[in-house]
Design brief:
Elements: E1 2-9, E2 12-20, H1 34-46, H2 50-59, E3 69-74, E4 77-83, E5 88-92, E6 96-99, E7 102-105, H3 106-115, E8 119-123, H4 125-130, H5 132-148, E9 163-167, H6 174-184, E10 190-192, E11 196-197, E12 212-213, H7 216-224, E13 228-235, E14 238-243, H8 244-252, E15 256-260, H9 263-273, E16 277-283, H10 287-297, H11 302-315, E17 324-327, H12 331-347
Helix pairs in contact: 10-11
Length: 348
């Protein structure tokens, strides 16, 4: 699919750029891939220009009262500095950006970023190097404008939150993929659902943060009141479950709630919410590959591995009950495929 960026003036409309969406969803003019973007972002962080390094020292951490991200990916581009709270992109450049052998004008970049819900402010290298105080003052003023005229979070996080369910046999790489989405793509505004448990808090765990801690009696009462989306009694008096009211609270705040659950829990949540939820099943390429991964972990005894494999074979029979199945044969490709599915769902 080709996304064409158009411009209109008194002479009519004209094409000023385009992006080709391929396998990874981030292929710009057929050259770039998601993995290339990721590598470039890491390289850019490692080797900033003098102007970029100076600006970063003035905005990093909470220097301006809010977090900025450096060399952050937004769709098909890598933005120099991004403040997600105010949907603000700060670019330091001399007029053009390079993506492989392709030159992409600042105008095209700006139009694309604006299409994703961001406001762009630009400085050239000399401005930063010669008047860093003036640059910071301009950024602060733009932050104030964004705060006063805010229309919410970026496009993927506006309005009421959505629901995304992940399930998989143990060892399929589900947790790795979910953590990748949450860490590398904060613009998705993902948040784990906060579950309930009848066990006591451990260490520094706090009620309402890691879990909601209930007594077994309180848990049973909520079961009787049909307050749970799903729950399980792991063994006698040890319950875990997800409250319907907590999911409502999180989505009302605009959070896109992630459920990292077993296949039965995933099927139950999907059945309850229907098309309001996206369900994704992460599948290993084969049971033998799953065996190799579990053995490679070196964390389980042989008999435990056999139990996990037997359970996995059973759980694989549930795959067709999910909206999408992602085969994790190559982790980078599985991450990219999952990201595309989530982005498409949140953009609906």
């Amino acid at each position: 699919m080709i996304f064409v960026i158009m411009e209109e003036d008194d002479k009519g409309r004209k094409e000023i750029g385009h992006t080709i969406y391929g396998k990874y969803g981030y292929e710009t003019n057929g050259d770039g891939t998601f993995n290339l973007l990721k590598r470039n972002a890491k390289s850019n962080r490692r080797y900033p220009t003098t102007a970029e390094a100076m600006l970063w020292e003035n905005v990093r951490g909470q220097a301006l009262g809010v977090r900025f991200r450096r060399q952050h990916q937004i769709g098909s581009y890598i933005a120099d500095f991004v403040c997600l709270k105010y949907n603000l992109v700060v670019e330091v450049d001399g007029g053009y950006h390079y993506f492989g052998n392709q030159i992409i004008s600042d105008e095209i970049r700006t139009k694309y970023l604006e299409s994703q819900g961001f406001t762009v402010i630009r400085f050239d290298n000399n401005e930063v190097l010669q008047d860093i105080e003036g640059v910071i003052a301009k950024i602060k003023r733009k932050m104030e404008e964004q705060n006063n005229n805010s229309s919410g979070t970026p496009l993927l996080g506006r309005g009421r939150g959505r629901l995304i369910i992940f399930s998989a046999p143990s060892g399929s790489g589900k947790s790795t993929i979910v953590q990748y989405l949450m860490k590398e793509h904060p613009e998705l505004n993902l948040a784990f659902s906060i579950s309930c448990t009848s066990r006591a808090p451990r260490g520094t765990e706090q009620n309402g943060v890691e879990y909601f801690f209930l007594t077994p009696e309180e848990f049973r009462q909520k079961i009787e009141n049909d307050e749970f989306l799903e729950y399980e009694e792991v063994y006698e008096n040890r319950f875990y479950g997800t409250l319907k009211s907590q999911v409502d609270n999180q989505t009302a705040k605009g959070e896109n709630v992630v459920f990292d659950v077993d296949v039965k829990g995933g099927c139950n949540i999907k059945k309850f919410y229907g098309d309001e939820a996206l369900s994704i099943f992460i599948q290993p390429p084969s049971v033998e590959e799953l065996r190799r991964r579990l053995v490679g972990r070196a964390t389980d005894a042989p008999e435990v591995i056999e139990q996990r494999l037997a359970k996995a074979e059973y759980e694989l029979t549930f795959a067709d009950q999910f909206d999408h199945v992602v085969v994790n044969d190559n982790l980078a490709e599985a991450e990219a495929e999952t990201l595309k599915l989530v982005e498409e769902f949140l953009a609906k």
